[in-house]
Amino acid sequence: MSTDYQQAREALGARLRELRFTCPAGRLTGQQLARRLGWQGSKVSKLENGRQTASPDDLRAWTDATEQPDAYPELAARLAGFESHIRSWRRALAHGFKPMHERLTTEINGTSEIRVWEEAVIPGLMQTPEYARHVVQRYADLLGVTKGVEDAVRTRAQRQEWLYQPGRRLRVLMWEAALRSLICPPSVLIAQLDRLTGMTGMDTVELGIVPFTAPMKIVPANGFWIMDDRVVVTEDWHAEVWLDDAENVALYGKIWKTLSESAAYGADAASVINAARRALHSG
After folding, report:
1. In 3-state terms, what secondary structure has residue 195?
2. In whole angstroms, what is the distance from residue 84 CA to residue 165 CA?
3. Are residues 236 and 267 located together in one domain of the fold?
4. C-alpha distances out from residue 128 to 22, 123, 233, Å
5. Rounded Cα–Cα distance for residues 191 and 280 (Å)
6. pLDDT, averaged in runs of 10, over the chain (283 residues)
7. Number of folded domains that form the chain
8. 159 and 250 in one domain?
9. pTM of this prediction?
C-alpha cells in the first residue's frame, strides 16, 4: 500500500483517538466506545492504529458516539483527501518502480491464497523475467518513469518464491486476450506461454482460461487480485487502488466467481494456450 496512503490513514486514526479521549462527558476507553457503537472492540483498535480504512458511516457514528458531531466534516474531508492519493500512479512512482513493487511483495508474503483476474496480461507471479521487462517498460514509457525498471523485474522474479512455500495457493483466471497480446516480441510471448504450461502442473497453482468463444455473464474488465478475502488490489490507467472494506472485497469475490464459471481448466485450458502458441509460430 502506498506510503502516503498509509500515513494518512494512521493520521486519521490518531484524530479518532483524540476524539475518544476528549469526549465531553469524559474520556472513553476503546471498549466503552465499542459498546456505544455496537462494534467489536478490535474495530476501534484497527481504525485508531491505521489498520482499517474507515467508511463515512464509521466516521459519522464515531463523532456521534464521542459527542462531537461537528468534527464529522473535517474527518470526511480527510478521508476523501487521502483516498485520492491512492489513485495517482505518478505519485506512487515518483521514486521509481522498486518501492511500489516491494510494498506489494510484503502484502503477498503475508497472504495464503491469492485469486487473480487478468484480462490482457499474464499475472506477475507467472511472468518470465523477459516478459516482465517488456510489461514494466511499457508502463515506464507511458508514465515517464525513468528509473527502476530492472529493480522491478528482479522484484517480480523474487516474488515468485511465494509459490514454493507451504500453504500457498494461487488461483488465476485469464481472458484469452492475455495469451495473445503482443506487448512483447513473439519469441518472448512464446517462452511465456511455455512457462504457463509448465506451471499448470504445480500443486500450488490453479489456472483457468476464459476463451474468446466462452459465454460471459459479466464484462471481462479490469484486472484485480484478491488476497485472503482481506484486501483487493485493482488497477486502471491512472491508478492502483487498494480496497479493504468487507463490502468491496465481497463484491470482487463475486466477480471472480462469476468469471470462473466461463473458464476452461486442465486439458481444456492447455488447448487454449497451445492454440495461442501455434498462432505465434504460424505468424
Report:
1. helix
2. 35
3. yes
4. 55, 10, 21
5. 11
6. 67 95 94 94 92 89 96 87 54 62 81 97 96 92 82 90 94 98 96 94 94 95 93 80 80 97 96 95 74
7. 2
8. yes
9. 0.71
What's the confidence (pLDDT) of residue 2? 46
- Please list the residues that pair with 38 across neighbouring strands: none
Domain that holds residue 77: 3-85
The answer to whether 255 and 218 have CB atoms below 8 angstroms apart is yes
Q: What share of the chain is helix, strand, coil (3-state, %, to 5)?
A: 60, 10, 30
Tell me which of 54, 85, 116 is where a domain ends: 85
**Residue matched to cell numbers 462469476:** 258
Q: Do both 108 and 218 map to the same domain? A: yes
Residues 212 and 195 in one domain: yes
pLDDT digits over 73-85, tens only?
999 888 876 654 4
Do 110 and 76 fall within a single domain? no
CB 204 within 8 A of CB 114: no
Give ∠ CA 55-241-120 in degrees, rounded to 5. 145
pLDDT digits (tens, 9 = 90+) for 193-234: 999 999 988 999 999 999 999 999 999 989 999 999 988 888
Number of Cβ within 10 Å of residue 147's Cβ equals 13
The alpha-carbon radius of gyration of the chain (Å, integer) is: 22
The residues, any chain, with a CB within 8 Å of residue 50's CB and separated by 6 or more, are 6, 9, 10, 11, 12, 13
Residue 231 sits in a domain whose CATH number is 3.30.870.10
**Among 85, 108, 128, which residue terminates a domain?**
85
State how far the Cα of 23 lies from the Cα of 65, in Å rounded to an integer.
9
CATH number of the CATH domain containing 23: 1.10.260.40
The three cell numbers of residue 210 are 476464459
Residue 85: the pLDDT is 46
Closest residue by Cα to residue 239 from 84, 99, 135, 108:
84
60 & 100 share domain:
no
